Amino acid sequence: MAETGGRSLAARIETWPVAGSFVIARGAKTHVDTVLVEIAEGGHVGRGEATAIYYHGESAESVRAQAQAMAGAIAAGLDRDRLLAAMPRGAARNAIDSALWDLEAKLTARPAWLLAGLAEPGPLQSAFTISLGEPARMEADARAAAAVYPLLKLKLAGEGDIDRVAAVRRGAPDARLIVDANESWTGRDVAAEAAALLPYGVELIEQPVKAGEDHLLDGVVSPIPLCADESCQDRADLARCAGRYAAINIKLDKAGGLTEALALAAEARTLGLELMVGCMLSTSLGIAPAILAAQGARWVDIDGPLLLAADRDPPVRFDRGTAFPAPPALWG
What we know:
The protein has 332 residues and is of the alpha/beta class. It has twelve helices and 15 strands.
């Protein structure tokens, strides 16, 4: 615990096992390392959790080090608005920003949603992720999941994707489907790939091409809305995404916290972009502020805690994939 004034900051790494394994086009995970930041003042402790953005080169160790480096500034009174300028976007800023929201809620005895000027949050229907695998495995996973979750998100890999989606539809004939290509359609005919998914009722396609190669979507007319994930981190990316994507996926770890996420959502709406709010693998503490950012989003994918073998106590409550606002004992 580093301390130089009325506030003190501590950061540590926690390891949480995944239920089975979580597989996407880039590889499989059997656990996730999260970074917990705690900011203490006046007998109260605000908490924030973040997961490293691996495709940015972040690690749990680098995120913890970034957070710890801000201890002096936090003790000197750095607030959320100045935090945006003091730190780059990313997981470390998210953990600190979330802890500051939580601390202010505790110090003022006012919920975070009220501090943010939001309406009282309500329950949200979240997607449940079907990991990348062979079609038969994905079909079986979808059949089991659809008995509980009405909205499924499929991880894709490029080659063989149509077979995967067809298999999932067989396993879950009544479920809503969204798919995440995870940049794997670079070099493929995106419009044709999307058209091939139309018979299966897919309603959204995330990140078909590699981030930074979004120009490949110029002139592409997709029959299914395309959503920027890796291509949209914060407000600085909106100009590049507008006109190429119909939606953006907001994740607090990418944006660098709830403060930026709320501003990003507002600006995206002015550009006519639809909103999706997602998450990294995380516990309920990481999901709690995302629930505020996700109010009013067309698609919500905050199933991170559901993919873990264990969660925090108390957790965010899920009922058939519907996430309820976080209990005050958890966050905000």
